[in-house]
Description:
The protein is of the alpha+beta class. It has helices spanning 2-18, 50-56, 84-89, 93-97, 102-105, 114-119, 121-126, 161-170, 174-177, 212-215; strands at residues 24-27, 33-36, 72-73, 131-132, 182-183, 199-200, 220-222, 228-230, 233-234, 255-256. It folds into two domains: 2-108, no CATH class; 161-256, no CATH class.
Amino acid sequence: MPGSRFSKRWFAAAAGFLLGGLALVISSCSSVQRTVVVPPHIPGATFVGNQACYECHTNYSHAFQGSVHFRVQADIEKLPGGTSCESCHGPGSRHAEAPRERAQFIINPRKDPKACFDCHQDVHLQFRLPSHHPVTEGILNCVQCHDPHGREIFKPAGGLGMARLNEQCSSCHKEQARTYVFEHEAMREGCVSCHQPHGSINSKLLTERDANLCLKCHAQVQSGAGEVWIGKTDHRSLLSLGSCWSAGCHTAVHGSNFQPKLLY
Length: 264
Ligand code: HEC
Ligand code: HEC
Ligand code: HEC
Ligand code: HEC
Ligand code: HEC
Ligand code: HEC
Ligand code: HEC
Protein backbone atom coordinates (compact mmCIF):
# COMPACT_ATOMS: atom_id res chain seq x y z
CA MET A 1 0.00 0.00 0.00
CA PRO A 2 2.35 2.74 -1.16
CA GLY A 3 -0.35 5.35 -0.63
CA SER A 4 -0.79 4.76 3.06
CA ARG A 5 2.93 4.35 3.64
CA PHE A 6 3.47 7.65 1.98
CA SER A 7 0.93 9.42 4.12
CA LYS A 8 2.35 7.81 7.25
CA ARG A 9 5.73 9.24 6.40
CA TRP A 10 4.26 12.56 5.53
CA PHE A 11 2.57 12.59 8.90
CA ALA A 12 5.83 11.75 10.64
CA ALA A 13 7.50 14.54 8.73
CA ALA A 14 4.81 17.00 9.69
CA ALA A 15 5.01 15.90 13.32
CA GLY A 16 8.77 16.41 13.22
CA PHE A 17 8.26 19.89 11.90
CA LEU A 18 5.89 20.73 14.71
CA LEU A 19 8.58 19.72 17.19
CA GLY A 20 10.30 22.79 15.84
CA GLY A 21 13.91 23.84 16.06
CA LEU A 22 16.34 24.02 13.22
CA ALA A 23 14.69 22.42 10.24
CA LEU A 24 15.99 20.09 7.55
CA VAL A 25 14.43 20.35 4.15
CA ILE A 26 13.98 17.24 2.09
CA SER A 27 13.96 17.52 -1.65
CA SER A 28 12.79 14.24 -3.14
CA CYS A 29 12.54 13.27 -6.83
CA SER A 30 9.34 15.21 -6.94
CA SER A 31 9.77 18.92 -6.56
CA VAL A 32 7.78 18.92 -3.34
CA GLN A 33 9.91 19.99 -0.41
CA ARG A 34 9.20 18.35 2.89
CA THR A 35 10.40 19.79 6.13
CA VAL A 36 11.40 17.41 8.88
CA VAL A 37 13.12 17.52 12.20
CA VAL A 38 16.14 18.79 14.04
CA PRO A 39 19.60 17.69 12.87
CA PRO A 40 21.90 16.00 15.40
CA HIS A 41 23.83 18.39 17.63
CA ILE A 42 27.55 18.29 18.35
CA PRO A 43 28.75 20.99 20.77
CA GLY A 44 30.82 23.68 19.07
CA ALA A 45 30.63 22.09 15.62
CA THR A 46 29.27 23.58 12.42
CA PHE A 47 28.25 22.02 9.09
CA VAL A 48 30.98 21.65 6.47
CA GLY A 49 29.17 19.92 3.57
CA ASN A 50 29.52 16.52 1.86
CA GLN A 51 32.46 17.68 -0.25
CA ALA A 52 34.61 18.04 2.87
CA CYS A 53 33.72 14.50 3.96
CA TYR A 54 34.56 13.08 0.52
CA GLU A 55 38.06 14.52 0.74
CA CYS A 56 39.02 12.00 3.39
CA HIS A 57 36.29 9.37 2.96
CA THR A 58 36.75 9.05 -0.79
CA ASN A 59 35.07 5.62 -0.95
CA TYR A 60 31.69 7.13 0.01
CA SER A 61 31.31 9.69 -2.74
CA HIS A 62 30.16 7.38 -5.55
CA ALA A 63 27.59 4.86 -4.28
CA PHE A 64 26.06 7.34 -1.88
CA GLN A 65 24.69 9.43 -4.75
CA GLY A 66 22.17 6.64 -5.37
CA SER A 67 21.03 6.45 -1.73
CA VAL A 68 17.60 7.73 -0.68
CA HIS A 69 19.40 9.76 1.96
CA PHE A 70 21.52 11.61 -0.59
CA ARG A 71 18.52 13.86 -1.14
CA VAL A 72 18.18 14.70 2.54
CA GLN A 73 19.67 18.12 3.18
CA ALA A 74 20.11 20.42 6.12
CA ASP A 75 18.96 23.64 4.56
CA ILE A 76 20.97 25.88 6.83
CA GLU A 77 23.18 27.35 4.18
CA LYS A 78 24.31 26.09 0.80
CA LEU A 79 27.44 24.02 1.29
CA PRO A 80 29.52 22.17 -1.34
CA GLY A 81 27.91 18.85 -2.23
CA GLY A 82 24.97 19.39 0.14
CA THR A 83 24.82 18.31 3.76
CA SER A 84 23.35 14.81 3.63
CA CYS A 85 26.27 13.10 5.40
CA GLU A 86 25.87 15.41 8.34
CA SER A 87 22.11 14.91 8.58
CA CYS A 88 22.97 11.52 10.10
CA HIS A 89 26.46 12.10 11.46
CA GLY A 90 25.97 15.61 12.85
CA PRO A 91 27.90 18.77 11.94
CA GLY A 92 31.46 17.73 11.07
CA SER A 93 33.76 20.73 11.54
CA ARG A 94 35.40 19.56 14.77
CA HIS A 95 35.78 15.99 13.49
CA ALA A 96 37.38 17.25 10.26
CA GLU A 97 39.88 19.25 12.29
CA ALA A 98 40.77 16.32 14.59
CA PRO A 99 39.60 13.10 12.94
CA ARG A 100 41.63 10.84 15.23
CA GLU A 101 39.55 11.83 18.22
CA ARG A 102 36.66 10.65 16.16
CA ALA A 103 34.30 9.12 18.67
CA GLN A 104 34.01 12.40 20.46
CA PHE A 105 33.19 14.66 17.53
CA ILE A 106 31.15 12.64 15.08
CA ILE A 107 27.98 10.62 15.62
CA ASN A 108 27.93 6.96 14.56
CA PRO A 109 24.28 5.82 14.36
CA ARG A 110 25.34 2.18 14.47
CA LYS A 111 26.04 2.66 18.15
CA ASP A 112 23.02 4.88 18.78
CA PRO A 113 19.96 4.87 16.50
CA LYS A 114 18.79 8.21 17.89
CA ALA A 115 20.01 9.95 14.75
CA CYS A 116 17.71 7.73 12.66
CA PHE A 117 14.78 8.18 15.03
CA ASP A 118 15.04 11.97 14.80
CA CYS A 119 13.60 11.67 11.30
CA HIS A 120 11.87 8.29 11.41
CA GLN A 121 9.66 8.86 14.42
CA ASP A 122 7.10 6.30 13.29
CA VAL A 123 9.85 3.68 13.30
CA HIS A 124 10.83 4.72 16.83
CA LEU A 125 7.26 4.06 17.94
CA GLN A 126 7.37 0.61 16.31
CA PHE A 127 10.45 -0.32 18.34
CA ARG A 128 8.58 0.61 21.53
CA LEU A 129 5.77 -1.87 20.93
CA PRO A 130 5.56 -4.88 23.31
CA SER A 131 7.11 -7.32 20.79
CA HIS A 132 10.09 -5.84 18.95
CA HIS A 133 13.55 -6.57 17.62
CA PRO A 134 15.94 -5.55 20.41
CA VAL A 135 17.38 -2.44 18.72
CA THR A 136 16.75 0.10 21.48
CA GLU A 137 18.35 -2.44 23.87
CA GLY A 138 21.54 -2.28 21.79
CA ILE A 139 21.45 -5.98 20.83
CA LEU A 140 20.64 -5.34 17.15
CA ASN A 141 21.10 -2.21 15.06
CA CYS A 142 19.53 -0.68 11.98
CA VAL A 143 22.62 -1.39 9.90
CA GLN A 144 22.14 -5.16 10.16
CA CYS A 145 19.09 -4.77 7.92
CA HIS A 146 19.66 -1.41 6.21
CA ASP A 147 22.62 -0.01 4.29
CA PRO A 148 22.88 3.70 5.10
CA HIS A 149 25.34 4.58 2.33
CA GLY A 150 24.59 2.32 -0.61
CA ARG A 151 22.27 2.56 -3.56
CA GLU A 152 20.00 -0.03 -1.99
CA ILE A 153 18.78 0.72 1.54
CA PHE A 154 17.44 -2.81 2.12
CA LYS A 155 20.00 -5.53 2.83
CA PRO A 156 21.07 -7.72 1.16
CA ALA A 157 21.24 -5.71 -2.05
CA GLY A 158 20.15 -7.24 -5.37
CA GLY A 159 17.60 -9.94 -6.13
CA LEU A 160 13.84 -9.73 -6.14
CA GLY A 161 12.10 -7.82 -3.37
CA MET A 162 10.50 -10.50 -1.23
CA ALA A 163 13.07 -13.24 -1.77
CA ARG A 164 15.61 -10.71 -0.66
CA LEU A 165 13.71 -9.79 2.50
CA ASN A 166 13.46 -13.50 3.39
CA GLU A 167 17.18 -13.76 2.92
CA GLN A 168 17.68 -10.86 5.29
CA CYS A 169 15.64 -12.58 8.02
CA SER A 170 17.20 -15.99 7.33
CA SER A 171 20.68 -14.76 8.02
CA CYS A 172 19.69 -14.83 11.71
CA HIS A 173 16.63 -17.12 11.77
CA LYS A 174 17.87 -20.23 9.98
CA GLU A 175 15.35 -22.59 11.57
CA GLN A 176 12.26 -20.93 10.06
CA ALA A 177 13.77 -20.34 6.63
CA ARG A 178 15.16 -23.82 5.94
CA THR A 179 13.59 -26.04 3.30
CA TYR A 180 10.84 -28.43 4.40
CA VAL A 181 9.31 -31.52 2.81
CA PHE A 182 5.89 -29.87 3.14
CA GLU A 183 6.50 -26.26 2.40
CA HIS A 184 3.98 -23.61 3.45
CA GLU A 185 3.50 -21.58 0.28
CA ALA A 186 2.96 -18.44 2.37
CA MET A 187 6.73 -18.31 2.85
CA ARG A 188 7.07 -17.41 -0.83
CA GLU A 189 5.35 -14.13 -0.08
CA GLY A 190 7.96 -13.31 2.49
CA CYS A 191 8.35 -13.34 6.24
CA VAL A 192 6.83 -9.86 6.34
CA SER A 193 3.48 -11.23 5.13
CA CYS A 194 3.02 -12.46 8.72
CA HIS A 195 5.66 -10.57 10.73
CA GLN A 196 6.41 -6.88 11.26
CA PRO A 197 10.14 -6.30 10.84
CA HIS A 198 10.46 -3.68 13.60
CA GLY A 199 7.81 -4.24 16.23
CA SER A 200 4.20 -5.22 16.86
CA ILE A 201 1.56 -5.11 19.56
CA ASN A 202 1.16 -8.87 18.99
CA SER A 203 3.60 -11.46 20.33
CA LYS A 204 6.34 -12.78 18.01
CA LEU A 205 6.13 -9.63 15.89
CA LEU A 206 2.98 -10.98 14.22
CA THR A 207 0.90 -8.66 12.04
CA GLU A 208 -2.35 -10.11 13.49
CA ARG A 209 -2.94 -11.78 16.84
CA ASP A 210 -5.60 -14.31 15.81
CA ALA A 211 -7.06 -16.34 12.94
CA ASN A 212 -7.13 -13.18 10.77
CA LEU A 213 -3.42 -13.73 10.20
CA CYS A 214 -4.27 -16.85 8.21
CA LEU A 215 -7.68 -15.85 6.87
CA LYS A 216 -6.26 -13.01 4.80
CA CYS A 217 -4.98 -15.74 2.44
CA HIS A 218 -7.22 -18.71 3.30
CA ALA A 219 -10.84 -17.89 2.57
CA GLN A 220 -13.37 -18.91 5.18
CA VAL A 221 -16.59 -20.17 3.59
CA GLN A 222 -19.77 -20.60 5.62
CA SER A 223 -22.39 -23.04 4.43
CA GLY A 224 -26.11 -23.01 5.18
CA ALA A 225 -25.68 -25.94 7.56
CA GLY A 226 -23.54 -23.82 9.88
CA GLU A 227 -20.29 -25.35 8.66
CA VAL A 228 -17.21 -23.13 8.37
CA TRP A 229 -14.96 -24.36 5.59
CA ILE A 230 -11.29 -23.43 5.39
CA GLY A 231 -9.56 -25.44 2.70
CA LYS A 232 -11.21 -28.86 2.59
CA THR A 233 -11.95 -29.08 6.30
CA ASP A 234 -14.94 -27.94 8.32
CA HIS A 235 -13.39 -25.71 11.01
CA ARG A 236 -16.63 -24.96 12.89
CA SER A 237 -15.60 -26.54 16.17
CA LEU A 238 -11.89 -25.88 15.66
CA LEU A 239 -11.89 -22.09 15.49
CA SER A 240 -12.99 -21.78 19.10
CA LEU A 241 -9.93 -23.73 20.33
CA GLY A 242 -7.56 -20.80 19.93
CA SER A 243 -5.25 -19.38 17.28
CA CYS A 244 -4.68 -21.53 14.19
CA TRP A 245 -1.08 -22.22 15.18
CA SER A 246 -1.65 -23.19 18.80
CA ALA A 247 -3.68 -25.85 20.56
CA GLY A 248 -2.24 -28.72 18.54
CA CYS A 249 -3.38 -27.31 15.22
CA HIS A 250 -1.01 -25.88 12.59
CA THR A 251 1.95 -25.61 14.95
CA ALA A 252 4.47 -26.11 12.12
CA VAL A 253 3.37 -22.91 10.46
CA HIS A 254 6.71 -22.31 8.69
CA GLY A 255 6.74 -25.79 7.15
CA SER A 256 6.76 -29.42 8.16
CA ASN A 257 8.86 -32.46 7.38
CA PHE A 258 6.12 -34.84 8.47
CA GLN A 259 2.67 -33.51 7.81
CA PRO A 260 1.14 -31.71 4.80
CA LYS A 261 -1.41 -29.90 6.98
CA LEU A 262 1.46 -28.34 8.94
CA LEU A 263 0.30 -29.91 12.17
CA TYR A 264 3.79 -30.68 13.46
C1 HEC B 1 40.63 15.38 7.49
C2 HEC B 1 40.10 14.09 7.11
C3 HEC B 1 38.64 13.81 7.47
C4 HEC B 1 37.53 14.55 7.16
C5 HEC B 1 37.47 15.90 6.43
C6 HEC B 1 36.39 13.79 7.64
N1 HEC B 1 36.81 12.64 8.23
FE1 HEC B 1 35.62 11.22 9.11
N2 HEC B 1 37.26 10.21 9.71
C7 HEC B 1 38.57 10.53 9.38
C8 HEC B 1 39.47 9.57 10.00
C9 HEC B 1 40.99 9.56 9.87
C10 HEC B 1 38.64 8.66 10.74
C11 HEC B 1 39.10 7.51 11.56
C12 HEC B 1 39.26 6.32 10.69
C13 HEC B 1 39.84 5.19 11.48
O1 HEC B 1 40.67 5.42 12.36
O2 HEC B 1 39.44 4.06 11.19
C14 HEC B 1 37.27 9.09 10.53
C15 HEC B 1 36.17 8.45 11.07
C16 HEC B 1 34.86 8.79 10.78
C17 HEC B 1 33.70 8.09 11.27
C18 HEC B 1 33.69 6.88 12.18
C19 HEC B 1 33.50 7.36 13.62
C20 HEC B 1 33.33 6.24 14.63
O3 HEC B 1 33.52 6.51 15.82
O4 HEC B 1 33.01 5.12 14.26
C21 HEC B 1 32.61 8.72 10.76
C22 HEC B 1 31.15 8.36 11.01
C23 HEC B 1 33.08 9.82 9.94
N3 HEC B 1 34.46 9.83 9.97
C24 HEC B 1 32.26 10.67 9.24
C25 HEC B 1 32.69 11.82 8.61
C26 HEC B 1 31.81 12.81 8.04
C27 HEC B 1 30.29 12.72 8.00
C28 HEC B 1 32.59 13.80 7.53
C29 HEC B 1 32.14 15.10 6.87
C30 HEC B 1 31.35 15.97 7.74
C31 HEC B 1 33.97 13.44 7.81
N4 HEC B 1 34.00 12.23 8.45
C32 HEC B 1 35.08 14.19 7.47
C33 HEC B 1 38.98 11.58 8.60
C34 HEC B 1 38.17 12.60 8.15
C1 HEC C 1 21.14 7.53 6.76
C2 HEC C 1 22.13 8.01 7.68
C3 HEC C 1 23.56 8.14 7.15
C4 HEC C 1 23.98 8.96 6.16
C5 HEC C 1 23.17 9.91 5.32
C6 HEC C 1 25.43 8.77 6.09
N1 HEC C 1 25.83 7.85 7.00
FE1 HEC C 1 27.74 7.28 7.38
N2 HEC C 1 27.09 5.91 8.74
C7 HEC C 1 25.77 5.70 9.06
C8 HEC C 1 25.68 4.52 9.89
C9 HEC C 1 24.40 3.92 10.43
C10 HEC C 1 27.00 4.04 10.07
C11 HEC C 1 27.46 2.77 10.77
C12 HEC C 1 27.68 1.76 9.65
C13 HEC C 1 28.30 0.49 10.04
O1 HEC C 1 28.90 0.41 11.10
O2 HEC C 1 28.23 -0.45 9.21
C14 HEC C 1 27.86 4.96 9.35
C15 HEC C 1 29.25 4.84 9.32
C16 HEC C 1 30.09 5.75 8.65
C17 HEC C 1 31.54 5.73 8.71
C18 HEC C 1 32.38 4.78 9.53
C19 HEC C 1 32.56 3.52 8.79
C20 HEC C 1 33.29 2.51 9.60
O3 HEC C 1 33.68 1.49 8.99
O4 HEC C 1 33.43 2.65 10.82
C21 HEC C 1 31.98 6.73 7.89
C22 HEC C 1 33.43 7.11 7.62
C23 HEC C 1 30.80 7.38 7.34
N3 HEC C 1 29.67 6.75 7.82
C24 HEC C 1 30.84 8.45 6.46
C25 HEC C 1 29.74 8.96 5.82
C26 HEC C 1 29.80 9.93 4.74
C27 HEC C 1 31.09 10.51 4.19
C28 HEC C 1 28.53 10.20 4.37
C29 HEC C 1 28.05 11.08 3.22
C30 HEC C 1 28.64 10.75 1.93
C31 HEC C 1 27.65 9.41 5.22
N4 HEC C 1 28.42 8.67 6.06
C32 HEC C 1 26.25 9.44 5.18
C33 HEC C 1 24.69 6.47 8.68
C34 HEC C 1 24.71 7.42 7.68
C1 HEC D 1 17.54 13.86 8.28
C2 HEC D 1 16.45 12.92 8.21
C3 HEC D 1 16.79 11.43 8.13
C4 HEC D 1 17.67 10.73 8.90
C5 HEC D 1 18.60 11.23 9.98
C6 HEC D 1 17.54 9.34 8.48
N1 HEC D 1 16.60 9.25 7.49
FE1 HEC D 1 16.00 7.53 6.55
N2 HEC D 1 14.91 8.61 5.24
C7 HEC D 1 14.69 9.97 5.32
C8 HEC D 1 13.88 10.38 4.18
C9 HEC D 1 13.39 11.79 3.89
C10 HEC D 1 13.62 9.21 3.43
C11 HEC D 1 12.84 9.08 2.12
C12 HEC D 1 11.41 8.88 2.44
C13 HEC D 1 10.57 8.89 1.20
O1 HEC D 1 11.07 8.54 0.12
O2 HEC D 1 9.42 9.25 1.32
C14 HEC D 1 14.27 8.12 4.13
C15 HEC D 1 14.20 6.79 3.74
C16 HEC D 1 14.65 5.71 4.51
C17 HEC D 1 14.41 4.32 4.22
C18 HEC D 1 13.71 3.76 3.00
C19 HEC D 1 12.23 3.83 3.11
C20 HEC D 1 11.58 3.23 1.90
O3 HEC D 1 10.47 2.78 2.05
O4 HEC D 1 12.21 3.20 0.82
C21 HEC D 1 15.01 3.59 5.21
C22 HEC D 1 15.02 2.08 5.36
C23 HEC D 1 15.65 4.54 6.11
N3 HEC D 1 15.40 5.80 5.66
C24 HEC D 1 16.39 4.18 7.21
C25 HEC D 1 17.18 5.08 7.95
C26 HEC D 1 18.17 4.70 8.93
C27 HEC D 1 18.54 3.28 9.29
C28 HEC D 1 18.70 5.86 9.43
C29 HEC D 1 19.81 6.03 10.44
C30 HEC D 1 21.07 5.35 10.12
C31 HEC D 1 18.02 6.96 8.77
N4 HEC D 1 17.12 6.45 7.88
C32 HEC D 1 18.26 8.30 9.03
C33 HEC D 1 15.16 10.83 6.29
C34 HEC D 1 16.12 10.50 7.24
C1 HEC E 1 15.42 -7.05 11.50
C2 HEC E 1 15.69 -6.22 10.39
C3 HEC E 1 15.44 -4.73 10.53
C4 HEC E 1 15.97 -3.88 11.48
C5 HEC E 1 16.88 -4.22 12.65
C6 HEC E 1 15.53 -2.55 11.12
N1 HEC E 1 14.73 -2.62 10.01
FE1 HEC E 1 13.80 -1.06 9.08
N2 HEC E 1 12.87 -2.35 7.80
C7 HEC E 1 13.10 -3.70 7.73
C8 HEC E 1 12.29 -4.29 6.66
C9 HEC E 1 12.26 -5.75 6.25
C10 HEC E 1 11.55 -3.23 6.11
C11 HEC E 1 10.54 -3.30 4.95
C12 HEC E 1 9.16 -3.52 5.48
C13 HEC E 1 8.15 -3.71 4.40
O1 HEC E 1 8.47 -3.52 3.22
O2 HEC E 1 7.02 -4.07 4.77
C14 HEC E 1 11.95 -2.02 6.84
C15 HEC E 1 11.44 -0.74 6.57
C16 HEC E 1 11.96 0.43 7.13
C17 HEC E 1 11.56 1.77 6.76
C18 HEC E 1 10.53 2.14 5.69
C19 HEC E 1 9.15 1.75 6.09
C20 HEC E 1 8.62 2.41 7.33
O3 HEC E 1 8.11 1.68 8.22
O4 HEC E 1 8.68 3.65 7.44
C21 HEC E 1 12.28 2.64 7.54
C22 HEC E 1 12.21 4.15 7.52
C23 HEC E 1 13.13 1.84 8.41
N3 HEC E 1 12.91 0.50 8.12
C24 HEC E 1 14.01 2.36 9.34
C25 HEC E 1 14.70 1.60 10.28
C26 HEC E 1 15.49 2.16 11.37
C27 HEC E 1 15.67 3.64 11.64
C28 HEC E 1 16.01 1.11 12.06
C29 HEC E 1 16.87 1.14 13.31
C30 HEC E 1 16.36 1.94 14.42
C31 HEC E 1 15.55 -0.11 11.41
N4 HEC E 1 14.76 0.23 10.35
C32 HEC E 1 15.87 -1.40 11.81
C33 HEC E 1 13.96 -4.42 8.51
C34 HEC E 1 14.65 -3.93 9.62
C1 HEC F 1 20.77 -9.50 12.65
C2 HEC F 1 19.98 -10.62 13.16
C3 HEC F 1 18.48 -10.62 12.90
C4 HEC F 1 17.83 -10.39 11.71
C5 HEC F 1 18.43 -10.01 10.37
C6 HEC F 1 16.45 -10.63 11.97
N1 HEC F 1 16.26 -10.98 13.28
FE1 HEC F 1 14.49 -11.52 14.15
N2 HEC F 1 15.40 -11.57 15.96
C7 HEC F 1 16.75 -11.37 16.18
C8 HEC F 1 16.98 -11.33 17.63
C9 HEC F 1 18.33 -11.12 18.31
C10 HEC F 1 15.72 -11.51 18.24
C11 HEC F 1 15.41 -11.55 19.73
C12 HEC F 1 15.53 -12.94 20.19
C13 HEC F 1 15.11 -13.07 21.61
O1 HEC F 1 14.64 -12.11 22.21
O2 HEC F 1 15.21 -14.20 22.09
C14 HEC F 1 14.76 -11.69 17.16
C15 HEC F 1 13.40 -11.96 17.36
C16 HEC F 1 12.50 -12.25 16.33
C17 HEC F 1 11.15 -12.72 16.51
C18 HEC F 1 10.44 -12.94 17.83
C19 HEC F 1 10.85 -14.24 18.45
C20 HEC F 1 10.14 -14.46 19.76
O3 HEC F 1 10.29 -15.58 20.26
O4 HEC F 1 9.47 -13.56 20.27
C21 HEC F 1 10.59 -12.87 15.28
C22 HEC F 1 9.21 -13.35 14.93
C23 HEC F 1 11.61 -12.44 14.32
N3 HEC F 1 12.75 -12.10 15.00
C24 HEC F 1 11.40 -12.39 12.96
C25 HEC F 1 12.29 -11.79 12.08
C26 HEC F 1 11.96 -11.41 10.71
C27 HEC F 1 10.61 -11.61 10.05
C28 HEC F 1 13.10 -10.87 10.17
C29 HEC F 1 13.28 -10.27 8.80
C30 HEC F 1 12.43 -9.10 8.51
C31 HEC F 1 14.15 -10.91 11.20
N4 HEC F 1 13.60 -11.45 12.34
C32 HEC F 1 15.46 -10.50 11.02
C33 HEC F 1 17.72 -11.23 15.22
C34 HEC F 1 17.48 -10.98 13.89
C1 HEC G 1 2.10 -17.76 7.40
C2 HEC G 1 2.58 -16.81 8.35
C3 HEC G 1 4.05 -16.80 8.68
C4 HEC G 1 5.10 -16.59 7.81
C5 HEC G 1 5.07 -16.37 6.31
C6 HEC G 1 6.30 -16.58 8.63
N1 HEC G 1 5.97 -16.77 9.95
FE1 HEC G 1 7.24 -16.81 11.52
N2 HEC G 1 5.70 -17.23 12.78
C7 HEC G 1 4.38 -17.31 12.41
C8 HEC G 1 3.56 -17.63 13.58
C9 HEC G 1 2.06 -17.81 13.60
C10 HEC G 1 4.47 -17.72 14.67
C11 HEC G 1 4.11 -18.03 16.14
C12 HEC G 1 4.30 -19.49 16.39
C13 HEC G 1 3.99 -19.83 17.82
O1 HEC G 1 3.77 -18.94 18.63
O2 HEC G 1 4.02 -21.02 18.09
C14 HEC G 1 5.79 -17.46 14.14
C15 HEC G 1 6.95 -17.47 14.90
C16 HEC G 1 8.22 -17.10 14.42
C17 HEC G 1 9.42 -16.99 15.23
C18 HEC G 1 9.53 -17.23 16.72
C19 HEC G 1 10.02 -18.64 16.99
C20 HEC G 1 8.94 -19.63 16.81
O3 HEC G 1 9.06 -20.49 15.90
O4 HEC G 1 7.93 -19.58 17.54
C21 HEC G 1 10.44 -16.62 14.40
C22 HEC G 1 11.88 -16.36 14.78
C23 HEC G 1 9.87 -16.51 13.06
N3 HEC G 1 8.53 -16.81 13.11
C24 HEC G 1 10.60 -16.16 11.94
C25 HEC G 1 10.09 -16.18 10.66
C26 HEC G 1 10.90 -15.99 9.47
C27 HEC G 1 12.39 -15.74 9.49
C28 HEC G 1 10.07 -16.07 8.40
C29 HEC G 1 10.45 -16.01 6.92
C30 HEC G 1 11.51 -16.88 6.49
C31 HEC G 1 8.72 -16.31 8.91
N4 HEC G 1 8.79 -16.38 10.28
C32 HEC G 1 7.57 -16.41 8.13
C33 HEC G 1 3.87 -17.11 11.16
C34 HEC G 1 4.61 -16.91 10.01
C1 HEC H 1 0.48 -14.96 2.42
C2 HEC H 1 -0.61 -15.90 2.24
C3 HEC H 1 -0.78 -16.96 3.32
C4 HEC H 1 -0.91 -16.77 4.68
C5 HEC H 1 -0.87 -15.47 5.44
C6 HEC H 1 -1.14 -18.06 5.23
N1 HEC H 1 -1.14 -19.00 4.26
FE1 HEC H 1 -1.37 -21.03 4.51
N2 HEC H 1 -1.08 -21.35 2.53
C7 HEC H 1 -0.94 -20.36 1.58
C8 HEC H 1 -0.88 -20.96 0.26
C9 HEC H 1 -0.73 -20.21 -1.05
C10 HEC H 1 -1.00 -22.35 0.46
C11 HEC H 1 -1.04 -23.45 -0.61
C12 HEC H 1 -2.34 -23.45 -1.34
C13 HEC H 1 -3.47 -23.90 -0.45
O1 HEC H 1 -3.43 -25.05 -0.02
O2 HEC H 1 -4.39 -23.10 -0.19
C14 HEC H 1 -1.14 -22.56 1.89
C15 HEC H 1 -1.28 -23.78 2.48
C16 HEC H 1 -1.58 -24.01 3.82
C17 HEC H 1 -1.84 -25.29 4.44
C18 HEC H 1 -1.83 -26.64 3.74
C19 HEC H 1 -3.20 -26.88 3.16
C20 HEC H 1 -3.31 -28.26 2.54
O3 HEC H 1 -4.47 -28.71 2.46
O4 HEC H 1 -2.33 -28.83 2.16
C21 HEC H 1 -2.11 -25.09 5.75
C22 HEC H 1 -2.46 -26.11 6.81
C23 HEC H 1 -1.98 -23.64 5.98
N3 HEC H 1 -1.66 -23.03 4.78
C24 HEC H 1 -2.16 -23.03 7.19
C25 HEC H 1 -1.99 -21.67 7.42
C26 HEC H 1 -2.07 -21.06 8.73
C27 HEC H 1 -2.36 -21.80 10.02
C28 HEC H 1 -1.84 -19.74 8.55
C29 HEC H 1 -1.80 -18.66 9.62
C30 HEC H 1 -0.77 -18.82 10.65
C31 HEC H 1 -1.60 -19.52 7.14
N4 HEC H 1 -1.72 -20.71 6.49
C32 HEC H 1 -1.34 -18.26 6.58
C33 HEC H 1 -0.85 -18.99 1.82
C34 HEC H 1 -0.93 -18.39 3.07
